[in-house]
Amino acid sequence: LIELDDVYRTYEMGGEVVRALDGVSLRIEAGELVAIIGQSGSGKSTLMNVLGCLDSPTSGRYALAGQDVSVLDDEQLAHVRNRTIGFVFQSFHLLPRQTALENVALPLLYRREGRLTPKAREAAAQEALGIVGLADRALHRPNEMSGGQRQRVAIARALVGKPHMILADEPTGNLDSKTSLEILDLLVALPEEQGRTVIIVTHEPEVAERCHRTIRLLDGKVVEDTRDGTP
Amino acid sequence: LIELDDVYRTYEMGGEVVRALDGVSLRIEAGELVAIIGQSGSGKSTLMNVLGCLDSPTSGRYALAGQDVSVLDDEQLAHVRNRTIGFVFQSFHLLPRQTALENVALPLLYRREGRLTPKAREAAAQEALGIVGLADRALHRPNEMSGGQRQRVAIARALVGKPHMILADEPTGNLDSKTSLEILDLLVALPEEQGRTVIIVTHEPEVAERCHRTIRLLDGKVVEDTRDGTP
Ligand SMILES: Nc1ncnc2c1ncn2[C@@H]1O[C@H](COP(=O)(O)OP(=O)(O)OP(=O)(O)O)[C@@H](O)[C@H]1O
Ligand SMILES: Nc1ncnc2c1ncn2[C@@H]1O[C@H](COP(=O)(O)OP(=O)(O)OP(=O)(O)O)[C@@H](O)[C@H]1O
Ligand SMILES: [Mg+2]
Ligand SMILES: [Mg+2]
């Protein structure tokens, strides 16, 4: 499903070059459950942004379902992001003036083909909120919620359109252990029960342990790639 | 140092009342190292905002160093916040168009008495960035940094003015275990080595274990208050 071929992502900052991704090659099959781990600043979010078609490599190739993503135009990319990928951002990126319900329904609103009616969108959003334990916060805006509640709204939004691939960047960073476990159970079930691909950036070993495969980044490179403890 | 007396913080949302703090009474002495734990939505950030003089209780009393905070005017409150309290926010609240160095120097810029020269402010900010491992990111803006780097800038900013009291709302939520440990070592040393009061909201048991005292919130109430495991 995913093929990264010698991908670089660099930034130039006043004469200095920051190598956020420094030659990454990876293959991830459909239905895999993968944890991405590594130190702060090692390139995890940058990798997720490339995988999620939110950022393009400085060099190297990214093929998604066999298609080279760099030949897609903006409209096609937006379509891929909307239909195929559900993204939980490390900093949530919720719309501050919209309610939780409106935020969660957003991916459905952006659809062109097979678009649901407003009533059906609202029902799907309410259901997604229920799954993350926020049914009673549907009409709250982000600044009327706790940090962990906002994080769960971001998770519900990523799930509502039932995308094939879920990219979750530190989805339990603001959650207590009990809520964390509930969210994790839900994410881990998606490959098993629905064949969807789930990639989770995490710095918590307990989260990585529940994934089939763990990829470790350091200074923009893959330094470890193990399946259940075996390289 | 801190005395909360039957503090309530409620919100009215279209006919429904949300009790973020539902009758909290607490005493925290100067120099204590306290962990605040509890489920997502249990009231931890609300408690921190009240302690940090960023929010006032709906009812009840908050006395800081013997002084009832509700009788202070806006200018006096701003002075208390600037001089006495260093706050690490759960969502960082960095200024997006300023560099890490400028963000960290901000509390020093706001001082009236005993104000440092621009050169001295810059040196203090650079030192604080060094302490959190970000000396080489001083000129980066928040969107040119990773999530964990932004979190550390927020921590450096809380420490730069050497305030008596540090309120850290989930300071290691976006950090890998190694960086987390370094930040924790640094926070835990402040009461021991400098007699400062440190209150850390955390959902990670390993962080709570390093504090002398743990206060657990549930539905806006204190349900547990133990010192090294003893109530
Ligand atoms: N402005 C507001 N209006 C209405 N309800 C609010 C508002 N701010 C917070 N709340 C509610 O108050 C409760 C406590 O929020 P708080 O942010 O203190 O929780 P928390 O313990 O910090 O949670 P987390 O671990 O998720 O960060 C939550 O249920 C939240 O939805
Ligand atoms: N726009 C940018 N300009 C310059 N450098 C950048 C930019 N964005 C990211 N970086 C740098 O790229 C590196 C990788 O960043 P990235 O956000 O991928 O790290 P991360 O592994 O997600 O870290 P964390 O665990 O702290 O979230 C970091 O050192 C960061 O400072
Ligand atoms: Mg990141
Ligand atoms: Mg909070």
How would you explain this protein's 3D organization?
2 copies of one chain form a homodimer. Chain A is α/β, with parallel strands linked by helices and 231 residues long. The first copy, chain A, has helices at residues 44-51, 74-84, 100-109, 118-131, 147-159, 177-194, 205-209, and strands spanning 2-13, 16-28, 33-38, 59-64, 67-68, 85-88, 165-169, 197-201, 213-218, 221-227. In chain A, the strands form 2 sheets. Chain A has a 6-stranded mixed β-sheet, sandwiched between helices. A 4-stranded antiparallel β-sheet of chain A has the order 2-1-4-5, with helices on one face. In chain A, helix 6 links the parallel strand 7 and strand 8 (197-201). The longest helix of chain A is centred in the last third of the chain and has 18 residues, at 177-194. Chain A is globular. The complex binds adenosine-5'-triphosphate (2 copies) and magnesium ion (2 copies). One adenosine-5'-triphosphate (ATP) sits between chains A (11, 13, 18, 20, 38, 40-46, 90) and B (137, 144-149, 174).
Task: Give me some keywords for this one.
homodimer, 231 residues, alpha/beta, six-stranded mixed β-sheet, four-stranded antiparallel β-sheet, 34% helix, 29% strand, globular, binds adenosine-5'-triphosphate, binds magnesium ion
Q: Outline of this structure?
A:
Two copies of one chain form a homodimer. Chain A is an alpha/beta fold and 231 residues long.
Q: How is the biggest beta sheet of chain A arranged?
A: 6 strands, mixed
Shape, principal axes of CA atoms of chain A:
globular
Oligomeric composition of the shown chains: homodimer
Mean pLDDT of chain A: 95
Widest sheet of chain A: strand order?
6-7-8-3-9-10
Order of helices and strands of chain A: EEEHEEHEHHHEHEHEE
Q: Which hetero ligands occur in this complex?
A: adenosine-5'-triphosphate, magnesium ion
Rg over C-alpha atoms of chain A, rounded to the nearest angstrom = 17 Å
Strand content bin of chain A: 25-35%
According to DSSP, the number of beta strands of chain A is 10
Which two chains share the most extensive interface?
A-B, 35 and 35 residues
Distance between the ends of chain A: 20 Å
Quickly give the structural class of chain A.
Answer: alpha/beta
Helix segment count of chain A?
7
User: What level of helicity do the residues of chain A show?
Assistant: 25-40%
Low-confidence stretches of chain A at least 5 residues in length (pLDDT < 50)?
A: none
